[in-house]
Amino acid sequence: MSRKIERLINLTIALLATKRYLTKSEIFRSVDGYEGAAEAKERMFERDKDDLRNLGVEIEVGSFDPVFEDEAGYRIKPEGYSLNLGEITGTQVALLSLAAEAWRGAALDDEAHRALNKLHSMGIESDMDALPIIAPRLFSTHSDFQVITHAISKRKRISFQYLNPELVAESRTLEPYAIATRNAHWYLSGWDVAKDALRTFRLDRIDGQIVTGKDENLYEIPKGFDVFDNLDVETPDKTTTIRIRKGKAQLLRSTALTTEDLGDWDLITLNYVDQFQLIDLILWHGEDVMVEKPENLRDEIISRLRQIVAIHG
Amino acid sequence: MAKTPQTPLSRAARLLDLVPYLNTHQGIGLEALSKEFNVTQTQLVADLTTLWMCGLPGYTPLELMDLSFDSGFVTIHNAETLSQPRALTDEEIISLLLGLDLIIDSLPEDREDLKTQALDLIQKLSQRGSVSSALRAVQSVPGTLRATIQNAVKGRTGLKMIYHSSYSDTVSERRVLPLELYENDGSEYLRAVCHSAHAIRNFRIDRIKTASDDSLTDFEKILIDEAPVAQTTYMIKTHSRNRTIMERFSIAKEEFKEELLTTSYSMEWIRRSVMSCSGDAELISPPQTRTDIARMAQSLLNRYLEQ
């Protein structure tokens, strides 16, 4: 294992240090660790190239001599190899440390930590004192989190089974654009290939493993794409008037547009998007909430109460 | 943090990253270095030994990296080729972008200056990788509130907080001694000794309205009285197979059956949840709660019909 690692490091150094392309035979002759028959060396080199590529090190292939169709040559361009974020302040290093810290124990902990190592290597002192005391935290231990971020960065398609409201798993193929988190849920947005439309999915409703396609760079991500823009497409356009008991139903109270004092009760109005979610919330509060308007919402509540009585009576 | 599994590739990556780090941290102690790279000291010494064998073709002492760490302090020379930190990978950029977006959301309103600096970083990072800047993370609790709670957990100091309990539908002041922060099902909870309830309680932190330091200290007595909170076993019969029920009662899809036997810490929660399911879920037991639900639904129905 150590030999292989040494060879990878030596190959990186040799390809970074060279000002011109190195041919394979030059590499085999000069870089320590390429041994055995010609074929074995070839195989070794191909694997090493793939391995370095997986580490994010791009090996550039070029012609050794542009005039003659000569043997291909290899090198690593320093500008592609090294981190270049331009001017960075100590405060910004502190912000990045805090950003990495937010992942502690969650899905991208290792990635964030490695990023931080590299940033620290720039040798800029982190100015933690410049920040207010905040401790933001991200949660996701979803096993496929890395699969999704990898697919996004490589522009690969992914396929998965998604549970619909009737609990039937539907096959989806997606060109993933972005992931986002809000209210303890993670969302995944992208182009649904079969529906030929933009769709957003909740990660916890994905059933089983996500499968990544082989091909890369299959699509472009629209500029300025924002998951939340696509989640909040429906504006609350329906209004209801409900009566809530004094000091009760905090969840409904917090969204009230107007509040009128009726003594033991308050009369509030609020806007909503989804009637079923609203009914769910109203019934959650039991005897502390009564719907006044609109009529169809009242009727729906009455019909549901009849059902509850019927099955529990 | 969990130790990263050792693969030749992850080790090679670490070696490449050690060189630029050492370059800007000449003379760093082995202990501090192993902490920074999240490896054991034995592993670190093995890494440094391997690095010591590497260098430019030729591999005479002149071309090899010059590492010294026998004294317990590490210095590196003759490593110019690898002296620049490596570019960030797309996954690393994604982790930082999501973290930065979360920070922007957590900053106090009067810190526009920091927001500008964070946005500048987001722009720089998005340009480097092939990832979009459209990675969003919204905090469910204000960053300052969370910091107050976290500090109280670390320092084992009291907290005075205003808490909204959704089960009992009340907002009240609680004086607590924080024990730990933990995550369950994507939400974060504070486990604390509650002075008001004289018991250990779990608070969902996005329901904590305000929190401030509290000087209350006589928590030891309460801890002694503490008995484990009893869970109630209940059975529901599902009248419809749907995602809402599955998510509300936290049932795994494979375990979704017509009759489900499960547990909850709160009778109030069971009652409210069954009401919310409006006929799709029937409470079979405990029988008393079943009767309560029937009575409450009937009384509410009567009030609607009287109007």
UniProtKB/TrEMBL annotation, chain A:
Annotated TM spans: none
Xref: Pfam families: WCX (PF25583), WYL (PF13280)
InterPro entries: CBASS_pafABC_assoc_protein, WCX_dom, WYL_dom
Domain WCX per the UniProt entry, residue ranges: 240-308
Residues annotated as domain WYL: 145-207
Protein known as: Unannotated protein
Organism, as annotated: freshwater metagenome
Automatic annotation (TrEMBL), chain B:
Name the UniProt record assigns to this protein: Unannotated protein
Location of the WYL domain: 147-211
Protein source organism: freshwater metagenome
Annotated PafC HTH domain residues: 12-115
InterPro entries cross-referenced by the UniProt entry: CBASS_pafABC_assoc_protein, PafC-like, PafC_HTH, WYL_dom
